[in-house]
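FAQ: What does the model actually see?

It sees only this:
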Amino acid sequence: MRALIASDSFKGSLSSREAGSAIARGLREANPSMATEIIPLSDGGEGFIDAYYAALGEGEIIDVNVDGPNGEKLDAEYIRAGELAVIEIAQAVGLERIDADRHDPMRAHTAGVGQLIAHATGAGAKRLIIGLGGSATTDGGAGMLTALGVRLLDNNDEEIAPQPRFFDRVKSIDASALAEFDTDITVACDVTNPLVGPTGAAAVFGPQKGADQEQVRTLDRLLTHLSDVPVTGNSIEKAHGNRRSAGAGAAGGLGWALMRFLGARLTGGFQLLSETAGLHEKIRAADIVCTGEGKVDAQTLSGKAPAGVWELCQRYDKPLVIFAGSVDGGAIEELSGDRLAIMPITSRPQSLEDAVRNASTNLEAAALTVGRLIEFAE
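And it is asked to produce this:
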């Protein structure tokens, strides 16, 4: 029996690789002769570097010291493989990089992302793949742009710091530093939100980054202002999107800045990673497929890894087990099928803290149960 394990991360507890390893241990404990293959998955957020490195099968991990969302120095990584560089923005500005009590949505910026891009292109990268998700910022990508030489200017042509609290003072954007920026950028992003409005970056994602309702309204207004500011330089020729474009609101507006100023094109994170990893062929060759994520809910159905894996399993008529830290009833109805099982990994009521702390043990135990059921069925 061949089991393919293609799991997303269990946010806050297990990386996609760690989750895959826990599932593999449980399956092999039940059936030592079972062959298991692990393919880490990511939709572009936390864990994208690890998943893409495994899928790519080549390259090296480069360490860079960058500015974090609050200005503190952080160690971040990206992949370099010839003229390709793969960047995960969560490495520099991820929610997990700072303590929850230090989230400051009016000051947090994305300069660290620009520093990663500058390092990669300075080292010879001609093509970038950027995983977009999990940011602690809502700065419309202003920090990234200033790290690449763009200047936010007031009425006196004085530079403004790239923090949302100062955006009212920005009257023009000098993007001439990007005139010769010719790096091809593909962004892995499964978020379709525009930059502003009721489904925009501030309204939908601001609260999880520490913004209260008043700050959400203020951030939306400031992002609207920033996107209306006149731009000088050649960046307009590069634009592949505007503030209404799907994905412009991803990562607090980084999607907008990448499309508007750097000519980036957005594509689905799962689609990009599955193609690189050869997931179609691996699912076709498997006898059973396992995937999972921390919470199976309505968002799972919107391009998340488990939904993508289920679609491929249906195409190739393969049974799928989705392991989940928690499950929303509506998602079960939407994901129903004759060859699908959704397996919660907690066997008894427990606090969220205990569930996170024991995620690896719980996941391995759930996989052991599935492995025993498979062995019994055979």
